Amino acid sequence: MTKRAWVYIWFILLSGAMVAGKLFFSPLPSTQSWIVFGLLTGLAVLAQLFKSEAPSHQLYHPTLILFFAGVLLLPPNGFALMVILTHLIEWAKELSLKSKHLRAWYLQPFNISMHILIGIAARLLYTLINPVPGVYDTLQALVAAFLAALAYVLLNHLIVGQALVLARGVSWKESGILNLDNLSTDFVMLTMGYVAAILMERTPWLVLPVLTPLYLIYRALSVPRLKQQVNTDPKTGLWNAKYFMNTLETELSRSTRFSRQLTVVMADLDLLRNINNAYGHLGGDAVLVGVADILKDHFREYDVIARFGGEEFAVMLPETSPEEAHPRIEAVRAAVAAAEFEAPTTRAKIKATMSFGVAGNYGMAAGAKEIIHHADVAVYEAKIQGRNQTKIYSREMAYSLGIYNFEKVDAEI
After folding, report:
1. What secondary structure, in 3-state letters, does the chain show?
2. What is the pLDDT of residues 41-67, one digit of tens each?
3. Residue 27 CB neighbours (<10 A)
4. Is the Cβ–Cβ distance between 54 and 228 less than 8 Å?
5. pLDDT of 106 over the 60 cut
6. Which residues pair with 315 in a beta bridge?
7. Euclidean distance between CA atoms 308 and 313, whole angstroms
8. What predicted TM-score, i.e. pTM, was given to this entire model?
C-alpha cells in the first residue's frame, strides 16, 4: 500500500469517526423510530451476510436498500448506529470463520466511515429539496429521493474508486468502479429503499413484503459468480487456462496499443510425479492447493493467476516488466521452497519446489501463444539448470536450447 493510499484511508476513517461522534450527542430517537431502527438493522444484518462476489472480486450486498430507507426514516444518529452494528456483526462473522474477506483491519472501519459520511450527505440533500418531515409520497419528495439516491451511489463509488486507484496503482477505467452496470445496480437498489421507506412510514411491518424481491436480486447478483465458476479451476480456486488465454489476448492488445509493458510467468512444480508416487494423489493435491494459496498471497489483486495444466501455473502481470517482476517471483519461489504442506495420507510434512520462467512483451506486439512459449522456454532452462530457479527469457536462451517454435515445451524432466 502506498503512502498516499494510507493518508486517504485515514482521512476517511477520521472523518467518519468525527461525524459519528458528533451525531451520538444528538437527542435519542423516538419510540416509533426505535421500532423502525430495530426492523431495518435486523434486516440489514441478514442482508449483509448474504453477498455475491463478481469475477473482479467485488462484493455486492442488497443492504443498500435498507441503508437508504434508514437515511430517509431514521434520525442521523440512528442511521449511523445502524451502519455500525451491521458492519461489526459481519466483521465478527468473517473473523470467526477466518474468511479471506476483510482480512485487513481497516476494511470494515473504512466501510463504516464511508457509509456514515455518504448517508448523512444524501440526507442533507434530501431535506434541502424536500424539507417537509414525514412526507415521502409527493412529487417533490420523489425528486428529492432520486437525487439523494444518485448522490449516495456516486459518492460511494468515487470514495471506493479513489482508494483502489491509490492502493493498486490502476487507472479509474481499469478499476471498473464507475462501470455503468455497477452504478445502475446500486441506484435501483436505493430506489427500492425509497419505496420501502414510503410503506414503513404508514406501517413499519410493510417493509417485509416489499423486500421479497431481495431473493430475485440476490440471484441476479449471483450470475457473475456463476460465470466465474465456469472459468475457475475447481481444485485450486484459481482461473483456468481458457480464461487466462482470453484475458491475456485482451491485455496484450491493450498493452501493445498503448506501448505498456506486460509480463507472463509460467511456473512448474518440480517432480510432482515423485510427490504423487510417495504420498498418493491426495498428497499431490495438497501441494497444488498450498502452492495456489501462496501465489494468491504474493501477487496483486489485479494480476491474473491461473492453473494452466496438471502441475503448471501461469501469472499475468500488467504494467510490469520481467525485471520488475523478478524480485516478487523470487519471493514466491522461496516461499514455496520453505513451505511444508500437509496431506491426509501422511503425517509427514511434504516439501516441494518450483521452477519459474518469465517473459515480457516490452510494450511491443506479441501474441498470447508466443509470450507463453517464451516463458516456457525460460522454465525449461530453469529445469535444466537444476530446478527451483527463476529464469528470464532471452532470444539467446532459445537459440542455445534449440527451441524456436511455439509448441508447448515438455518441462517435466
Report:
1. CCHHHHHHHHHHHHHHHHHHHHHCCCCCCCHHHHHHHHHHHHHHHHHHHCCEECCCCCEECCHHHHHHHHHHHCCHHHHHHHHHHHHHHHHHHHHHCCCCCCCCCCHHHHHHHHHHHHHHHHHHHHHHHCCCCCCCCCHHHHHHHHHHHHHHHHHHHHHHHHHHHHHHCCCHHHHCCCCHHHHHHHHHHHHHHHHHHHHHHHCHHHHHHHCCCHHHHHHHHHHHHHHHHHCECCCCCCECHHHHHHHHHHHHHHHHHCCCCEEEEEEEECCHHHHHHHHHHHHHHHHHHHHHHHHHHHCCCCCEEEECCCCEEEEEEECCCHHHHHHHHHHHHHHHHHCCEEECCEEEEECCCEEEEEEECCCCCCCHHHHHHHHHHHHHHHHHCCCCCEEECCHHHHHHHCCCCCCCCCCCC
2. 888 888 787 665 544 445 556 788 889
3. 7
4. yes
5. yes
6. 265, 305
7. 5
8. 0.56
Domains of the chain (ranges plus CATH)?
3-230 (1.10.1760.20), 241-401 (3.30.70.270)
Show the cell assigned to 353: 519446489
